[in-house]
Amino acid sequence: MGTTTDTAPRTGTEDPGSGLDAKRMSLGPFDVQVGPAAHLAAERQRLAALQWQHFDARPLGATIGAEISGVDLRAELDDAVIAELRRAWLDYKVIFFRDQPLTAAQHVAFARRFGDLEIHPFIPANAEHPELVRFEKSAEVGGYENIWHSDVSWREIPSMGAVLHAVSVPQAGGDTVFADMAAAYEALPDDLRAQADGLSAIHDFALAFGRNLDEQALADMHLLHPPVEHPVVRTHPETGRRLLYVNRVFVREIVGLDREASAVMIERLSRYASIPEYQCRFHWEPDSVAFWDNRAVQHYACSDYWPEIRIMERASIIGDRPH
Question: Mind telling me the catalytic residues?
Fold first, then answer.
């Protein structure tokens, strides 16, 4: 049996990426870029050099995420361990733990070591601990958290961080993806970054939680939680890094832009969370725990396990007003 030979002339003698100076570039007429995310190099190298006294850390993404081993979250951890975990949390933006069979009380106690806990007004809670919101998904209750967001950005003071415990998870599916919003901000083209720096946005719970409320209940909840204005680019109060702070699920509009221009800007900026180079992905096992910096990251809960059961509980730590 003969072989087919391509006799077309060959013009390439070296890799198509050679001579491009390791930079991202637009591809044709589309609003998409290709090429190495070279701006991640310094942060990736910094994280790779970190060493820890009380535990080990295995980085997951280039600039985000690490799996921590050698710590039992059920124990009354020394202040020195908590302080070092906090430093790791700030550096990696989200840290993960395996095999942590926490009771609800232990979950709350660990989260409270990092600050006061909030009560969520819309999501059902653990029966004994109102600080724990409970996401109980099944064939009857689907997962609708599969959109990039930071938690409760519609609050005047959004969450600083969140501790999520896997109570019951499917064997496959149900992963959570996290995005480094400092990396996303630094990737913006110069003109878009300059524009975003001067913008603010209106965040409103009603986009996500208003659909189940009648007109009076919606009005009552808006009295308690009115729409708030936050900068589109916020500054992290502890690291000083600039962070893209806009999402499709809670941002109603960009201040000063008409409806169409506002929607275009929200869409264009929100898209940067979805770039894989700025992400890490975590596959849940029973009793896994994720602890993320809600100021620095956005997350996306994959809803690919229906009709299987996925039960998670989350404690959220009160933060600071974005600036």
Answer: 149, 151, 299, 314
